[in-house]
């Protein structure tokens, strides 16, 4: 039976980042296993938005560190050909008078205290940056110039490629059937390609984390939740790459929008989605009622989109925890088991730093950012990381 120093379960953007960072910190004998292919899970369904705007200050810290890596991606990976596909177009967030106004003000102030470069814009300034939108109801407009979007699949495959170049073994089409635990210590994994000895497992299984709960007998709360994404085409109002990502706290669905392909609009709701009975990433139906409802919200903000059509659409699944924030770190009571799951629709922008700190934790190093707030224990102690905007992917 082969022995590995660390085994990583899952090669999405999180597992691939973990694997790269394990090698970066000197781990020599690392195995990554994915039952599918690299990035083929929920990572390939991502909208890819990168921002540091969060109402939970711990998340700002993770996003800020991650942005520095995205901004310098090829050099950080030591791979001239690596790209994260970044479009640095900025991020604009708008609140009208009402219950979202003070949460937005407080979040922007918090971000400034954390050293994030931010501007508050007048309606006229906002119109200049995003001329296809109207801002008559906007009471507060935040703008983060150093933000934008990137390609999550490209990031996962780039991390995995860089990990492989540093000696990590990545096996696709290899399913983990069980983590082997003896006397409270991890001793190996049993998989579809054989059993392997290891004293350290990092699970990056996302919506499939209930499998780990079954193997360990631990409660690991997570709900698979399906969300729909639409790409709209409007001849009269193209959403170009130079226009910022837009978050509309005035809309009932707390819409987010961005350029798609340099002319279309990618749009989705930022609220609770459809709970699924089991983990699965197959495409779901997008009811016409939903399309009409989102279309009406889009037209409120982007009047020319009244006459838009759907160019394409897809569904994706979030791994939602009770407070819409991830669980990161060791599972208490089991030696040699680290988890990173529950990203609740906002894990891509955190992935570089999450991979870094999970690798540091597994290797017994100090972590760049504290894992303590993200401990599974918070669901028992009540120290939840619930965001100021309520439940939803802004967090
Ligand atoms: C529609 C949508 C839009 C999003 N938009 C954004 C956004 O704009 N910005 C942002 O920051 N985030 C966004 N996200 C969230 C982000 O994409 C995810 O948080 C991130 O991609 C999750 O990566 P992951 O590695 O945890 O999961 P996954 O990519 O799902 O990877 C998990 C992997 O584990 C493997 N696996 C599981 N169990 C086993 C097993 N037993 N054996 C072997 N392999 C196993 C699976 O095959 C899978 O490949 C969005 C997500 C969706 C669905």
Automatic annotation (TrEMBL):
Superkingdom of origin: Bacteria
Span of domain FAD dependent oxidoreductase: 5-360
TM stretches of this protein: none
GO annotations of cellular component type: cytoplasm
GO MF annotation terms: oxidoreductase activity
Keywords attached to this entry: Oxidoreductase
Alphabetical list of SUPFAM superfamilies matching this protein: FAD/NAD(P)-binding domain
Pfam families: DAO (PF01266)
Keyword Ribosomal protein: no
KW Cytoplasm (keyword) present: no
Protein name: D-amino-acid dehydrogenase
Species assigned in the record: Pandoraea terrigena
Lineage: Bacteria, Pseudomonadati, Pseudomonadota, Betaproteobacteria, Burkholderiales
